[in-house]
Amino acid sequence: MSGRFTAMSAAPYEESHLYRLRHTAAHLMAQAVTELYPGAKLTLGPPIENGFYYDIEFPEAIKEADLAGIENRMRELAKLDMPLVRREATDRDDARRIIREECSLGQGEEVISYKLELLDAVPEGQTISFYEQRATDKQGKERLFIDLCRGPHVESTKEVRHFKLMSIAGAYWRGDVRNKMLTRIYGTAFETKDDLQGYLTFLEEAAKRDHRKLGRELGLFMFSPVVGQGLPLWLPKGTVLRETMNQFLRDEQVKRGYQGVVTPNIASIKLYEKSGHILTFREKLFPFMEDPEGETFILKPMNCPFHIEIYRSAMRSYRDLPIRYAEFGTVYRYEQSGELAGMLRVRGFTQDDAHLFVRPDQLLDEFVGVVDLMMQVLKRLGLNDYRARVGTRDPENAKYIGHDDNWRLSEEAIIEACRRVGLDYVVSPGDAAFYGPKLDLIIKDALGRDWQMGTVQVDYNLPERFELEYTGDDSKPHRPIMIHRAPFGSLERMIGLLTEQYAGAFPFWLAPVQVAVLPIADRHVAYARQVAERLQGYPVLGLAPEGEQVAADPGAWTGPNLRVSVDESRETLGKKIRENTKQKVPYLLICGDRDCEAGTVGVRARGEEADLGSMTLAGFLERIQPEL
RNA sequence: GCCGACGUAGCUCAGCGGCAGAGCAGCUGUUUCGUAAACAGCAGGUCACCGGUUCAAAUCCGGUCGUCGGCUCCA
Predict the structure, then answer these.
(1) In whole angstroms, what is the distance from residue A556 CA to residue A537 CA?
(2) What's the confidence (pLDDT) of residue A538?
(3) Concatenated DSSP letters for A291-312?
């Protein structure tokens, strides 16, 4: 989606002219900053997906209002038409000299301290290059900027015309919290005015699809400061969405041999000491609770240890495996306040979790089954725009536990499973969990940000820690392998994302209200109710405004069980259409005099801003058959 | 948590040292209407909270809480 605003050609973005342009824009911004804020220390300033940034340590904190001044100076500098000249250092000492003497721009040793550090990080044998831009302005003053940089850049600063500085953020030097926080300035640049305007318009449009805005407008979910940060409240319509999705998945899982289990929301700390989460997950745990008798409990951050205890509750034979325990389990994780993001990042969420206990010889088949289920879920949700990432072990890193043979077996199983099911994936070394490789599904939100959704993980660690066993055909104990999996990932994140993907216009099977029946005048309410009752298969509650309860048609209660509302507000038809359209109801059925007489409804479908004419209910049901 | 921005009626926003405002939503009444907003009236506020400056604070300053964009981390 964001690709629309990056490389349009077949060449990768990193090799495009646009990428170079943004890189040059970053240099131009750095030059403006060194002129306006003497003593500012430059660090890194790369192009990124939709623009560029530069991380800078300012002598004094700057504010967003200061961006206009920097932007103006950039425009002034750009017009000087400075060519970007590449220079290569002869060796490391030469590079050091250039940084000290030239990059410092006479502002002292201090301002180039980060650059010297970056120089040290350049791998041995790699050419060390600089990019220089200089010009003499109308007042005869020399304007110069030179930066340690791999390049490449565009020809001249003059090409940097259509740009905008977007925002300020803090960013740790080298991405490490223990380091000093720098000021990051984000900007964007494009080749044409239209492209820049297009991007800004895209951002405005994205804001309209924001799930937080739509969640409120459509009555799906909310947050309350009194309840607490990151703790969502599901409104009736959002709950319909959630339960509909759960039901779909539950049905699929039953067919695939899963068994439902239910476990509590808190557990003794002992459980998590045993699982090891108390150590590895410590900073994500809410504070512990102590009961009056001195026992310590924690709010559950994961479901796995509970399912493991269920596994351990009986002797297991190799004939019992695989065992698949599924639970829509709500977990609580303490996320730092600054990283909460609507429904996409919350502190209490429900995973569509399951744990499979399998024999080594079953690993591949079970994996294929799980990946197949995930594909089916994606298809049903209508999600086509996703990426699958296989996280494997980084051989360089020592944090991974377990035997090499196990890693090889499970990494191969994941990849083979993707192949068999036809799921396109990319392998990402170093993205495995410390206890095993995994497959993640990644989806973009309205703003083009990546979110990890569904996940499958192989785990050799927990069976080890809990000493899980089954008796093999050799009568000896064997250790099962665990597969953790959650096709949605979490209901909160998935529904947040779906809301943005569909801009609130959910597919028919998910729509909280599928059909709205709109009586034109009070005298049509009774008929409208009859229509609703036939579609939903049970009586509408309450009395019609005429004061008479519609006689229930006993034959009617076998309807297609649609979710139907009757708009009995005392408003004009136009108003009712407007309101129900804004609520993104898939079908509106209008009932007036003509319909009451002929036994028809006037049909209006979402997305088609027109009257589709009148039809009988049977005709309507036939029409929507493909969507059921 | 850290950096930056923002908190005015249920929602969207105006007001930015001198009487707290509009539209929508809500309530009441009238209207009973055929494809995206009927008409009229009423009600609705600790201007997020706490403190300070000032004759006077929604407005300026400080702190707290919350939200948003980033960093770090993850479903």
Answers:
(1) 6
(2) 87
(3) -TTS-EEEE-S-SHHHHHHHHH
Tell me, yes or no, whether A307 and A274 share the same domain: yes
- Asked if residue A385 and residue A256 are part of one domain, the reply reads yes
Task: Give the C-alpha separation, A117 to A59, whole Å.
Answer: 19
Distance A217 CA to B43 C1' (A): 24
Of the residues A186, A207, A228, which one is the last residue of a structural domain? A207
Q: Which domain holds residue A80?
A: 2-207
Question: Which nucleotide is closest, CA of A339 to its C1'?
Answer: B73
Q: Is the CB of A592 within 7 Å of strand B?
A: yes
Q: CA A344, CA A346: separation in Å to the nearest integer? A: 6
Residue A563 corresponds to which tokens in the numbers above? 């979710």
Does a cis peptide bond (omega within 30 degrees of 0) precede residue A152? Answer: yes
Spatial distance between the Cα atoms of A530 and A298, rounded to a whole number of angstroms: 52
Give CA separation, A99 vs A39, A53, A152, A488, in Å: 15, 21, 19, 51
Asked if residue A237 and residue A336 are part of one domain, the reply reads yes
List CB contacts of A484: < 8 A, sequence separation 6 or more. A304, A353, A354, A355, A455, A456, A457, A459
pLDDT of residue A358: 96
**Could you tell me if A124 and A36 lie in one domain?**
yes
Q: Does A134 share its domain with A242?
A: no
H-type alpha helices, A537-600:
573-582, 593-598
Tokens coding A157: 């600063």
Give the total number of structural domains in chain A.
3
Contact flag, residue A138 CB and nucleic strand B, below 7 A: no
In the predicted model, residues of chain A with pLDDT beneath 50 are 1-9
pLDDT score recorded for residue A65 = 85
Both tokens of residue A450?
A: 């990546």
Residues of A with catalytic annotation?
304, 333, 351, 353, 355, 438, 484
Whether A359 and A427 have beta carbons less than 8 Å apart is answered as no
Beta-carbon contacts of A244 under 8 Å, excluding residues fewer than 6 positions away, are A509, A510
Q: For residue A1, what pLDDT is reported?
A: 35
Q: Please report, as a single letter, which amino acid is at residue A159.
A: E
Residues 6+ apart with CB under 8 A from A596: A523, A524, A527
Q: Does the ipTM exceed 0.90? A: yes
Residue A458 placed within a domain: no
